[in-house]
Amino acid sequence: MTLGRAEAFASKNGVFVSLIDGLGSGIGFMAALVILGFVRELLGSGSIVGIPIDPELNPITLFILSPGAFLGLGMILAFINMLKHRKEKKTYVEHENNLKSTTLVTSKVKPETDRRRYGPDGSFHHILQRPAR
Predict the structure, then answer these.
(1) Helix, strand or coil for residue 67?
(2) DSSP summary character for residue 125
(3) What spatial distance separates the first Cα and last Cα of the chain, rounded to whole Å?
């Protein structure tokens, strides 16, 4: 998949731009593997490069094994999604404070008021309400 994307990019761009894209992709993939390895090493053995972090930490041996990579990747992705959700929510609250109401005119006859809301479970809802007559 990675090679297919790189080949598609290289076929549409010049050599220098493709080289920079390849280096960026390689560095990004390497960073992802290093972060995943760091999390697995910390949780699986309680140490980083053989140096114990906390003597009272009970290591979870599962993280050293193959399934630990999937669990570690899932934890990292969940953390990233949590950060994105917090940023979206913060941006939404700031936007709502700046603009108390926004009116969308979809046609000259039926103006609708655009209200964005977060549900009780934290999910984002886009609700269009008609103004009272």
Answers:
(1) helix
(2) E
(3) 55
Which amino acid is residue 109, in one-letter code?
V
Which amino acid does the sequence have at 32?
A: A
Residue among 76, 70, 126 nearest 84 (CA): 76
SS3 state at 74: helix
Coil, strand or helix at 28: helix
Q: For 68-122, what is each residue's pLDDT tens digit?
A: 899 989 999 999 999 998 888 877 777 766 665 554 444 444 444 444 555 555 5
Contact status, residue 110 vs residue 96, Cβ threshold 8 Å: no
Residue indicated by tokens 């709502």: 96
Residue 116's beta-bridge partner residues?
A: 126
Between CA 24 and CA 31 the distance in angstroms is 10
